[in-house]
Amino acid sequence: MSYDLIVIGTGPGGYVCAIRASQLGLRVAVVEKRATFGGTCLNVGCIPSKALLHASELFEEAGHSFAAMGIVVDKPKLDLPALLGFKDKAVDGNTKGVAFLMKKNKIDTYHGTATIAAPGKVEVALADGGAQTLESTAIVIATGSDVARLPGIEIDETRVVSSTGAIALDKVPGKLIVVGAGVIGLELGSVWRRLGAEVTVVEYLDRILPGMDGEVAKSFQRILEKQGIAFKLGAKVTGVDTSGATLKASIEPAAGGAAETLEADVVLVAIGRVAFTEGLGLEALGVEKDKRGRVVTDHYFRTNVPGIFAIGDAIAGPMLAHKAEDEGVALAELLAGQAGHVNYDVIPGVVYTSPEVASVGKTEEELKAAGVDYKVGKFPFLANGRAKANDQTEGFVKILADAATDKVLGAHIIGVEAGEMIHECAVLMEFGGSSEDLARTCHAHPTRSEAVKEAAMAVEKRAIHM
Ligand SMILES: Cc1cc2nc3c(=O)[nH]c(=O)nc-3n(C[C@H](O)[C@H](O)[C@H](O)COP(=O)(O)OP(=O)(O)OC[C@H]3O[C@@H](n4cnc5c(N)ncnc54)[C@H](O)[C@@H]3O)c2cc1C
């Protein structure tokens, strides 16, 4: 079989690249080794974790905040198998949606494991037996990532779990230790805390959410602590004793010192993810990888081997579904002779907890390190009418603008629906907008988004409701 493009992997990078290429008239095939399409994101990542976050948030609200609004319900009871079924339904609907899109766009699909035998040639070990050789002008590596492991700690996905095991626990753990205070650890830690687990997060660094704005991270940590999550920062888990009925995790200060033992029913290892390219045959082809195992590409997603391209978690950059998708679109357009492009300065990041944390662009720490002179405008949800009406006043909006030009360089929000609100800042930044542009844009009342406008007004110290 001969194609213009073969995409290996159908995560958000791969399937989106295939659809865009097909829209542009290329003859496209995808190869996927999982039984279902959609990659990490749809099968064991974004989608199932968000379904669990949604259901567990409502469970907690029903138990805690309904009464204050005059809604009297019996204490909610947890039906965990049904809650996991709700999550599985979300996964099923989404992965089937991708299968439909493959058909709709006339993309040939192969279920099996792909190896690149040579530039222009892909061998597929088919899932139902046999092999198939495919030929193509261009081959895209969109094989994503896998969980990062801690040396000496074996993940069994029942008691010592990665995110994959943590979205499928068949019992609420009495005590859960989360190793790593990144997005995935805090999201899944929040899910199980809401469902009744006692959660302790152990983080090597002296802060949570490395890479996010420091003030936002500090404030968010206080909110999570108030919700009942305990943090051990500047500490590392050096081993987990699984011999008894209760797990015993050894924890040492990162700076050195006496170890302590923490007991737990489940330990979730959430220290990050690593690029996955195993079995593709890249070594034999001489495809260059960096020290972290990521495929090295240029600005046009080209590897050092002509005809072989790479996108998504398998290459450098934030490991986010929408970053992978945008790279998929850009590469398809480049392959079709258009001017595909990704603006890496405007990629939003969201933590889907309650409240949410969302950011786009530079943090204060990054601006300081780069020696950029900047102004800050902040506005708390406590002073926002809609937030007060809904009694959801935690958090604030922070806008960072260039001191000389007023161009918005970064936006950071903690608050309910922050993950939706961040996008007006992203659009503004795509157009090189200023804090004044945002401040002079009429915002509907009463909305939480008015806090974004007020934060932009606060850049020039003219917020109204503060
Ligand atoms: C718990 C969790 C929650 C997350 N939540 C979010 C979120 O809310 N928002 C967000 O933006 N990101 C989130 N992510 C990250 C997101 O899932 C990834 O950034 C995204 O899936 C990367 O897409 P990708 O296309 O590069 O690769 P992947 O989605 O990893 O897909 C790669 C695919 O390639 C296939 N494959 C690999 N090798 C071969 C081979 N040799 N032959 C055939 N097929 C192969 C794999 O089976 C897989 O299906 C989350 C991740 C996790 C684990």
What do you see in this structure?
With 466 residues, the protein is an alpha/beta fold. 32% of the residues lie in helices and 26% in strands. It contains 14 helices and 21 strands. The chain has a five-stranded mixed beta barrel with strand order 1-2-3-4-5. Strands 7-14-8-9-10 form a five-stranded parallel beta sheet. Strands 17-18-21-20-19 form a five-stranded antiparallel beta sheet. It is globular and about 65 Å long. 44% of the residues are buried. Bound molecules: flavin-adenine dinucleotide. Flavin-adenine dinucleotide binds next to helix 1, strand 2, helix 2, helix 3 and strand 3.
Mind sketching the topology for me?
Layout: E1 2-8, H1 12-23, E2 28-32, H2 39-44, H3 46-64, H4 80-104, E3 108-118, E4 121-126, E5 131-141, E6 145-147, E7 160-161, H5 163-166, E8 175-179, H6 183-194, E9 198-203, H7 214-227, E10 230-233, E11 235-241, E12 247-253, E13 260-264, E14 266-269, E15 273-275, H8 282-285, E16 308-310, H9 321-335, E17 349-351, E18 356-361, H10 364-369, E19 374-380, H11 385-389, E20 396-402, E21 408-415, H12 418-430, H13 435-439, H14 450-459
Parallel strand pairs: 1-2, 1-5, 2-3, 5-16, 7-14, 8-9, 8-14, 9-10
Antiparallel strand pairs: 3-4, 4-5, 6-15, 11-12, 12-13, 17-18, 18-21, 19-20, 20-21
Helix pairs in contact: 1-9, 3-4, 3-6
Flavin-adenine dinucleotide binds next to helix 1, strand 2, helix 2, helix 3 and strand 3.
